[in-house]
Amino acid sequence: MPPFPPLYHLSIRSAMDAEDPASAALWVNVVYMGILLLSIWGLGRIFYGDWAGFGAAALFSCFPEVQWLFRETLADLPLIAWTAASYWALFASRRFVVVRYSALFGLFAACGMLTKWSAFSYYLPVLWIAWEAWRGIVGRRGLGVALAVFVLLVFPWYLIQWPILLPRLIGASADGAVPVWKGLSVLSYVFQLGYGFGFPAFLLTLASLFAPWVRRRSGDMGFLLAWLAGSYVFWTIVPNRQLRYLLPGLIPMAVLAMGPWPKALRIGVIVFQLVAAANYGFAYLPPLNFHAGLTISLFRSAPPQAEDWKIGEILKAAEARRDRSSKISFSNLALVSNTHYFNGPTFNYERKRHRVEGLRIRGVNRRYVEFCEFVVVKTESLGPASVIGQLGDVRSDMMDPKGWFQRGYREIQRFPLPDKSEAVLFQRRKLKKSPFLSATEVHYQFYSEKSFEAEKLTIRFGRWSRLRGAYDRVMITTPLLKLRGLEIRNVKVIMEGLSLIPTIDWSGRSQDVEDLMQDFRFLKMDRLILASAEVSESAAAEFLQKRVNDISGARFSLEDDISASARWKGVPVAATVSLVESKQGLQIGAERLSAYQIPLPLFLLGGSQSYFVGFAPTPELPFKLQIANVSIADGKLKIGR
Fold first, then answer.
1. Is 416 within 8 Å of 425 (Cβ atoms)?
2. Which of 434, 455, 435, 428 is closest to 444 using CA atoms?
3. pLDDT tens digits, residue range 469-492?
């Protein structure tokens, strides 16, 4: 996931010390709702007068989707508030003519960008307004002040984060959603409005877009419509279409709905919305939903529910059963679920709230749950189909009593959940005998897995400890290893306290060790020692060209430090990196950076200027890491002597 801007999280930081942090954090939403109401009132006042401003604020804030966000600790409501505030300041500044309001626009827009990186998508019309202000001279001063305030506030955080943020956003998953060019995807948000706005407000706001007085007015009205249209186009192109993402761009619909419609109509819709908003949290009236091509709702509600999802109880049960003989101070717990209340973030939150220090929460990857002592599997629903990915197949494998998972893990407790499902807690077994029987050595002329290939691979198994359920020591050697395309020679790796399990059932029948090792899963390991390895200059250059797009002519120099040069999209670039070894880990730091042989400041790399590889166990690598004698000399990066 990309790094998230800090403003919202800083605003709820004080709530984290409360007895009930989740409830305390929700009170911060009252402040953001106040900013939203004042801002929409200001917008409505500019276009249609004071009472229209009150009506627009009431109408928008009472949308069921907004009421839902008001009761959630998400950054979306603050983003809506800052977007509304910034547009109010923009229109109040008469397009950057009034300097004090221009400064407020820069401040509020910066707050939006420091709340969610996607805030820029709602400001597309501002680019044209800024261009007009620059050309018109009158607005240049206000534009300069707004830009200065915005850059001073936003620049520091994004400068540090952009090397990580940009590639993650470009490569972000679309959650399996339907592309915009397929079916009626371009209308997907229209289909959501009947449920997200409530039926009367949906009809009024939609009709207001086509009202004749909207078409006849120009000036700021055109930019109000551009705000709506630009946001709609952007978020329709993005395949993951959730109404909360578009809400900051739908504020103009509430303002336009307060145009010169009959007063009785406007008052009637507002009163209905107020009643519906009051009903949202108390459910006095039953919800009415109709499905006629699009979902239409009346009196949508979500009253607070006192549900115990047993997360704290599950965590404490796992903590009490931890393997205390392990040399690692924590255990990983993997979760096979992604429902609204039973997911990784809620487990992490409850772990911190209950101060369960001996567990770390992990997700599931293509190799499932390697190095996890505990696994929680939810029965029945695992979550929406668009977000659970492979979890259904993972659960099927884990719940198979004859499968490899239940040979490596045992069920220790079940917890009933409020949705009539169960949470099944598994713990890693201590294997009583070696999965490879009496085998002490295995040889492969060629061994391949998805991420690596090895030639003349030798695996030597040490003594099997029945008490620990693991090998004391396993040594792996190969003269040539290709790891994700990087050629590494003379590799020697030692694994201490290693336990693993083949996915093939070896019990009760003879099976070649070579076959069993073709597909296996790690259960645990105490220490990984990289005793020997070599990477040459040519291997590093070839790897760089394969892994980085638009790179050509790559060259490396491995003498005391690591120097690389190449052409990136035709531009000659070069960099020098240092490598410092200590007892705690390896520190990799950028020393020089250039393009066209012109030195560039290292701050352009942001937080990527240095990278630390720690030797202490982490949730990602829950074992000690030891790297023997790293050196850079004679055109090689060497480990060992």
1. no
2. 455
3. 999 999 999 999 999 899 999 999
